[in-house]
Amino acid sequence: MKSKALLAIVLAATIAFAQTTDGQRYIGAGLAVGLAGLGAGIGLGIAGAAAMSALVERPQERVWYLIFLALAEAIAIYGLLVSILLI
């Protein structure tokens, strides 16, 4: 539920800032990609370390570990989509 509310806030901010000058839109798009990439990198680092340590104990669950890593990577994709909407 929190992710839906966060996505609604991001989309509302995108619509609000869509009427700014070109330079401000490019800065906003760059910040969207950069900060989303930073968050995804931190999430992948934490989830990847935990997945590797859990893989030693239960190797049959490796598909679930890859799913958790893909969920962390989705944050960067959301940032890319927001930046495309801003430009």
In terms of DSSP E residues, the strand content is under 5%
Low-pLDDT segments, ≥5 res: none
pLDDT averaged over residues: 82
Structural class: mainly alpha
Overall shape: it is elongated
Tally of DSSP β-strands: 0
The biggest beta sheet, please?
none
Q: N-to-C terminal Cα separation, in Å?
A: 28 Å
Question: What integer value in Å does the Rg equal?
Answer: 16 Å
Helix content: over 70%
| H/E topology pattern | HHH
Tally of DSSP helical segments? 3
Please explain how this structure is put together.
- The mean pLDDT is 82.
- The two termini are 28 Å apart.
- The chain is mostly helical and 87 residues long.
- The longest helix has 36 residues.
Which characteristics define this entry?
mainly alpha, 89% helix, single chain, 87 residues
Topology:
Layout: H1 2-17, H2 22-57, H3 62-86
Helix pairs in contact: 2-3
Quick summary:
The protein has 87 residues and is mainly alpha-helical. It is 89% helix and 0% strand. The longest helix has 36 residues, at 22-57.
